[in-house]
Design goal:
Blueprint lengths: L7 E10 L6 H9 L6 E3 L8 E4 L2 H4 L4 H18 L9 E8 L5 H15 L3 H4 L3 E7 L4 H15 L3 E11 L3 H9 L14 E13 L10 E3 L3 E4 L14 H13 L9 E4 L5 H14 L9 E2 L2 H4 L5 H15 L7 E7 L4 E9 L3
Parallel strand pairs: 3-7, 4-5, 4-6, 10-11, 10-12
Antiparallel strand pairs: 1-7, 1-8, 2-3, 6-7, 8-13, 9-13, 12-13
Helix pairs in contact: 1-11, 3-4, 8-9
């Protein structure tokens, strides 16, 4: 195995708000217990209820920026609470990852709120900082990660990156649109998805190589992003596995790993037939029989589809499993398939120390 190109981004402190927990620790505990908190919701113009996984106690009655802010604020605070000390004197980059449906004015408002949330944390706010706002869908965590790696390459002084992601498929207008398109899970549409929502924040630190990541820590390698020539979803033609195969192979190559180096798989599979066919064909092309023997973690089976926050939450949960000694995790091949056609993958690796 050859050495991957430096640097890598090490996971530091983090926070999250999900349907099964208002903190990272609570979410991890509920996930290990396989706690489900879906509910059925009736929408105007529809006789049958839809199954959703909303953070009802946090977002009830809220919409737009207010809804997103309610999901993200405590996740950011939790991440910064865990970062009272940051190593080195380097610059910081804040990446605010928001839903594709958020307009410019709403992005500006959420950005202003983020500025107020970080202000009390001198270890972060007292440093030279810049910010990037990224709009993206289900592959958003990987899109933001690519921006982070480009920023590292452009600035040798950049040391710390905040990735703050928030999305809601339960936003009233978004939910109504998905219902009319018949994308949601309901009686008679078992191939529909469960609309979810979440906020997550992780602080990432530049490390020269994986060997420089502290014992027990994890790093995310540079992602692979591929735009498929077609949309994915129920009722469409059988999905072509070529794009996902390309992304998986590129993620492995970018981390200087092969199939035998992977200990776990993670994806946004939610039980849909089209996802199952797509994943099976792509994995068969890239890692062959090794895939059948690997544990495959499926956060969407508990959270529903939470959009751009899904990838961030998945990385944190997998590293948390190891940290809490629930399961030994060495390397994770992680991927997402956005029905709009964007496919992304990366490798999460534990420090060898």
């Amino acid at each position: 195995m050859s050495l991957p190109p430096a640097p890598v981004l090490a996971l530091q402190s983090h926070g999250m708000v999900t349907v099964i927990g208002n903190s990272a620790a609570q979410t991890l505990a509920s996930w290990c217990a396989e706690s489900r908190r879906t509910r059925r919701l009736f929408l105007e113009d529809f006789a049958d209820p839809f199954t959703i996984a909303d953070c009802q106690g946090v977002t009830d009655g809220l919409a737009g920026v207010d809804r997103l802010a309610a999901l993200l604020a405590s996740a950011v605070a939790e991440a910064l609470d865990g970062a009272a000390h940051l190593e080195g004197d380097g610059e910081c980059l804040e990446i605010l990852l928001v839903p594709a449906w958020l307009d410019d004015a709403a992005c500006a408002k959420l950005g202003a709120l983020l500025s107020t949330w970080v202000l009390p944390y001198e270890a972060w706010s007292g440093r030279a900082r810049s910010r990037l706002v990224v709009r993206a869908g289900a592959a958003g965590a990987w899109v933001a990660l690519e921006h982070a790696y480009r920023a590292l390459a452009a600035s040798p002084h950049l040391r710390h990156i905040m990735l703050a992601a928030v999305d809601s498929a339960c936003e009233p207008a978004v939910l109504q649109q998905a219902a009319h398109a018949d994308w949601l899970l309901r009686p008679g549409n078992e191939q529909g998805y469960v609309a979810g929502e979440a906020g997550a924040c992780v602080l990432l630190q530049r490390a020269r190589t994986i060997d420089d990541v502290p014992a027990g820590g994890f790093a995310v390698h540079r992602p692979a992003l591929v735009q498929a020539p077609q949309r994915f979803g129920p009722g469409l033609d059988d999905p072509d596995p070529g794009s996902l195969s390309q992304a998986l192979a590129a993620a492995l190559a970018g981390s200087a790993m092969g199939p035998t180096h992977i200990s776990h798989l993670q994806s946004d599979m939610d039980g849909s037939d089209w996802r199952a066919r797509l994943e099976a064909a792509a994995l068969n092309r890239v890692i062959f029989s090794a895939a059948a023997a690997l544990p495959h973690w499926l956060p969407a089976s508990l959270f529903g589809q939470v959009g751009n926050a899904g990838g961030v939450i998945a990385w944190l949960l997998l590293s948390g499993l190891h940290r809490q000694q629930v399961e030994r995790v060495n390397t994770v091949l992680s991927w997402s398939v956005d029905p709009a056609g964007q496919v992304a993958a990366c490798v999460l690796e534990r420090s060898p120390h």
